[in-house]
Write a structure and sequence with these properties.
Helix content is 54%, strand content 10%. By secondary structure, it is of the alpha/beta class.
Length: 413
């Protein structure tokens, strides 16, 4: 590099793949003035740190598109003192040229998109948050797999004229399920082999699901922040763990509205021109995994009749007459409460009520190796339960204000 350009910040577009990467060093402050100083094509990923030390400086900004290994690339570059940013892939995908595309073009496009400011920066989770996200993803995959296999088995039985009672635990009680299905009718050898195969797959998927659920319950019970989320009605171990894993550092959300928008619970609207249009939540916006869990929590709360949020939801349902709208509004209020709790804006809990005590007991029972956990921490079950109760009393709680309305932020020029 020439001496006159040592203090000039450069942007390096980085196109990452599992085994190789392509990079383009851009010099210039705008996309129009940016000049490609040097290209690197299909460099082995094993040489990433040595390449960064040789060809980049701490003042450079390395930008890459969000992909499978983008977070790991950022962490690897951070270890050698380089600044790396991950950009949203949805916007960068729209900039792809239809007539020609290769890694070199992609690297330049990523760098210019950063200079233009058209792509948002993605937060890179810390290692603990990344591990928890991976655990959450594994659990949700097992839940989905269990549901798919249960439906496949029921569909096969229905095709053969067999309808089992609803209360038969197909996944958890394999032997009893076999007996019930065998009694239903006379099966041929081939048919029974298919049924046995489906039952074995279902049993294995359910065992994996219970394993991940046990680990999640253990993490929630030993994490003060996640335990504090259990104070909220409708939030148990899975929802509390998902919120903690996905949100990560709550300080990156300046207000409750920003967290609501991140999850995707803010209603869509269009106020351009003469007409104003208001739409539903979600539709490809925000974190679908957490949003679905909060929606499930809102359904559970609406079935309750003793807490303020349930009463508020029923009044809104009587006034609006649209259940989906009410459920989304209740889930949005839950997200706001989560923000206040995680930000430390709390009041002490004087007494653990029966509802919360039962909830904590159920979470403890989810931990499969409960004896091993208690032995590890050197406490009996009553002592551990009392410790959780004391932690809840001194932890965060949030008082819902049903009259407060949610006002989405409108972007200004």
């Amino acid at each position: 590099m020439n001496t006159e350009h040592k203090n000039v910040q450069r942007v390096i577009g980085f196109d990452s793949h599992p085994d190789t990467f392509t990079a383009a060093i851009l010099k210039g402050s705008t996309p129009a003035s940016a000049v490609v100083e040097k290209n690197f094509d299909k460099v082995p990923m094993s040489q990433l740190q040595s390449w960064a030390r040789k060809w980049t400086t701490p003042e450079d900004v390395i930008v890459l598109e969000a992909s499978g290994n983008s977070f790991e690339v950022v962490r690897t570059l951070t270890k050698v003192g380089r600044k790396a940013l991950v950009l949203e892939s949805c916007q960068l995908g729209k900039l792809k040229e239809g007539h020609a595309n290769n890694d070199k073009i992609s690297a330049v496009r990523i760098g210019k998109a950063y200079l233009a400011g058209t792509a948002k920066t993605v937060w890179v989770p810390d290692p603990q948050t990344q591990e928890r996200r991976d655990l959450l993803h594994a659990h949700r995959k097992c839940v989905k797999r269990t549901t798919q296999l249960r439906n496949r088995l029921k569909s096969y039985l229905s095709d053969n004229g067999v309808r089992l009672p609803i209360n038969i635990p197909l996944a958890s009680d394999l032997e009893n399920s076999k007996k019930q299905i065998q009694k239903a009718r006379v099966w041929s050898t081939c048919q029974w082999q298919i049924i046995e195969g489906l039952l074995l797959e279902l049993s294995h998927a359910n065992q994996q699901r219970e394993h991940w659920r046990s680990l999640i319950a253990q993490i929630v019970l030993t994490d003060p922040t996640m335990v504090s989320l259990v104070r909220l009605c409708g939030v148990r171990d899975i929802v509390a763990f998902a919120l903690g894993a996905v949100i990560g550092d709550i300080k990156r959300f300046a207000s409750p509205a920003s967290l609501v928008k991140y999850i995707g619970l803010n209603p869509a609207f269009d106020d351009s021109g003469k007409e104003t249009w208001k739409g539903s939540v979600g539709k490809g916006r925000g974190r679908k995994d957490v949003r679905c869990l909060l929606i499930e929590s809102a359904h559970a709360i609406l079935r309750c009749s003793t807490i303020p949020l349930a009463k508020w939801g029923k009044k809104l349902l009587a006034r609006k007459g649209e259940k989906k709208l009410v459920i989304a509004a209740m889930a949005r209020k839950l997200a706001v409460a989560v923000w206040y709790l995680l930000m430390g804006r709390w009041t002490p809990v004087e007494e653990i009520d029966l509802r919360l005590e039962v909830k904590i007991g159920k979470i403890i029972s989810e931990v499969a190796p409960a004896k091993e956990l208690l032995k590890k921490i050197g406490k009996t079950r009553p002592q551990f339960r009392e410790e959780i109760h004391e932690r809840l009393k001194t932890a965060r709680t949030y008082t819902l204000r049903p009259t407060k309305k949610f006002v989405p932020k409108v972007a200004t020029a």
